[in-house]
Amino acid sequence: MTSEVRFGQVSPRLLENLTVWFKIPPMGTVRGREVKFRIYPKDHLPVHAHAKIGAGEVIVEVRRDGKVALSRVHKVPVVGDVKNSEIAKVLAEAADLAKAIRAEWKEMQK
Question: What is the pTM of this model?
Fold first, then answer.
């Protein structure tokens, strides 16, 4: 019996090999109660994170004063079909995790 990989699925082993072969640094992650924030390596300023929620993504920035908001530098900070309640949830969790998001973002820029 052979294992079949469908379009859009990548086995963890293949992903690990691709990361090594192409020297792709791992993505940073900060986990909240219901939201996982992703931080890309060598990403641009301002400090920000991508939150997958519902059927889309919300990009939030963490400002120097520790406050969070929808990203101002991304033309579309909310991508896909995201409800207002989901945006509010992302912003609330990002506010609770602002220090952790900022620290992980700085780590990913090394």
Answer: 0.77
